[in-house]
Amino acid sequence: MTEWETAPAVAETPEIKLFGKWSTDDVQINDISLQNPLQVLVNAIINSGPREDSTRIGRAGTVRRQAVDVSPLRRVNQAIWLLCTGAREAAFRNIKTIAECLADELINAAKGSSNSYAIKKKDELERVAKSNR
Q1: Which pLDDT belongs to residue 14?
Q2: CATH assignment of 35-131?
Q3: Would you say residue 40 has pLDDT above 70?
Q4: pLDDT of 29 over the 70 cut
Q5: Where are the domains of the chain?
Q6: Per-position DSSP letters for the chain, written without gaps between them
């Protein structure tokens, strides 16, 4: 009887190289889309809620503005309103869908990027309140 030699069913996989030069072991991906989506939403709401606002104080026919602190509930409500308004304005007369615009707005707000409508408006509200202290 002759002995049979068995060949391996799967050849050894070669090491995968990035651009044929670098090993992929050293590559780290820091993409916000790989985070927990609920955490991105929470971070966006936290970052886009103004901490300080200004209100109208009127006495004897004269009206002036006074800086006031914002309650936590109002901060959350205003943050959600700013995020929705930013997504709506970005999608208006644009080829991007409202879902894509909302995703972009949430990601930018979670990062604290000034590309976000909500972050821009929050900074503007806080700047006006600071000038009215």
Answers
A1: 63
A2: 1.10.455.10
A3: yes
A4: no
A5: 35-131
A6: -PPPPPPPSSPPPPPPEETTTEEGGG-----GGGS-HHHHHHHHHHHHS-SEEEEEEEETTEEEEEEEEPPHHHHHHHHHHHHHHHHHHHHTTSSS-HHHHHHHHHHHHHHT-TTSHHHHHHHHHHHHHHHT-
The whole-number average pLDDT for the span 113-130 is 92
CB 66, CB 57: distance < 8 Å: yes
Average pLDDT for 16-25: 64
* Tokens coding 51: 């901490």
> Per DSSP, what are the bridge partners of residue 68?
53
- Residue 50, CB-side half-sphere exposure with 13 Å CA sphere: 23
Tell me the whole-structure pTM to 2 decimals. Answer: 0.71
